[in-house]
Design goal:
Blueprint (H helix, E strand, L loop, with lengths): L2 H18 L9 E8 L8 E6 L15 E4 L4 E2 L8 H10 L5 E5 L2 H9 L20 E2 L7 H10 L5 E4 L3 E6 L2 H24 L7 H11 L10
Parallel strand pairs: 6-7
Antiparallel strand pairs: 1-2, 1-5, 2-3, 3-4, 5-8, 7-8
Helix pairs in contact: 1-5, 2-4, 3-5
C-alpha cells in the first residue's frame, strides 16, 4: 500500500472513531492529516494535507473520497474538500507540530459554544489543552476566513478551543491522537455542563494551574517508549 493510501485509511478510521464516540453525526465536522504527496514516480513532493470531503457521511467514505489540499488553497481529488479547509490550512501553517486537525459538533461542546462561554479551570485536566482555560472563539460564518482567524486567535497558547454557536476545534500530532483528545475534550465539556447545573464550580487558582501546567509538560509516556 502506498504511503498516501495508508494515510487516507488512517484518516477514515479516525473519522469512523468520531462517529462511534458520538463526536459527530451524519456529515457534521471534519478531520485532516498533514501530508507531503508525491507524484506517481515518488518524486516532486507537494506540501499540504488530506481532509475529509464536504457533505459526506463518514460511514460511506472510501480512500478516493479523501481530498488532498495544498497550502495555496487548491485541491486534488474527485470530491470537494470540507468547507472548513481554511482553518485546517491555517493551523498547519501556524503550528509546525500539528500533524492532524479535528473539528466536531459534539453535544456538550456545542451547548457551551452556543452560550459563548470560555471553560475556566474547574478541573485540572483543562491543562491537557495547553493553558489554564479553554477559550471560545468569537462567532463567524462557517467556512470563512473570518472563522479561521477567530479560531487561531482563540488557540493562541492552546491546542483546543470552542467555536461560538458551532462546535470545537483541536490539533494533535496524529489523527489517532486527535481523536483521543477530542473524546477527552467532550468529556470535559460534559463535566463542566453538569457541574454548572448544581451551582458555580469551585475553580483552581492561578498558582495551582501553573503547577499543573508544569506537570503536564512531562505527562504520559516518552515518544520512544515501547
Amino acid at each position: 500500500m502506498k504511503t498516501t493510501d495508508h494515510a487516507r485509511h488512517r484518516l477514515i478510521a479516525a473519522a469512523h472513531g468520531m462517529l462511534a464516540a458520538g463526536l459527530n453525526k451524519g456529515t457534521a465536522g471534519n478531520l485532516s492529516l498533514r501530508l507531503a504527496q508525491n507524484d506517481e514516480n515518488g518524486e516532486n513532493s507537494e506540501s499540504g494535507f488530506l481532509i475529509t470531503p464536504s457533505g459526506m457521511d463518514y460511514a460511506t467514505l472510501e480512500a478516493e473520497d479523501i481530498v488532498f489540499m495544498r497550502f495555496d488553497g487548491t485541491a486534488s481529488g474527485r470530491r470537494q474538500p470540507s468547507s472548513e479547509w481554511r482553518f485546517h490550512r491555517d493551523l498547519y501553517l501556524a503550528y509546525p507540530q500539528a500533524g492532524a486537525v479535528l473539528h466536531a459538533h459534539s453535544p456538550f461542546a456545542v451547548s457551551l459554544a452556543c452560550l459563548r462561554w470560555d471553560i475556566p479551570p474547574f478541573h485540572y485536566m483543562i491543562a491537557r489543552f495547553g493553558g489554564d482555560n479553554i477559550r471560545c472563539a468569537r462567532y463567524a460564518t462557517f467556512g470563512t476566513q473570518a472563522l479561521s482567524d477567530a479560531a487561531l486567535e482563540a488557540l493562541n497558547g492552546r491546542t483546543a478551543c470552542l467555536l461560538a454557536n458551532h462546535g470545537f476545534l483541536l490539533y494533535a500530532e496524529t489523527p489517532e491522537r486527535a481523536l483521543a483528545l477530542g473524546i477527552e475534550f467532550e468529556a470535559l465539556c460534559e463535566q463542566y455542563w453538569r457541574a454548572c447545573q448544581l451551582g458555580a464550580p469551585v475553580l483552581l487558582d492561578a498558582d495551582e494551574m501553573a503547577v499543573i501546567l508544569k506537570k503536564f509538560a512531562h505527562y504520559g509516556q516518552p515518544q520512544n517508549a515501547k
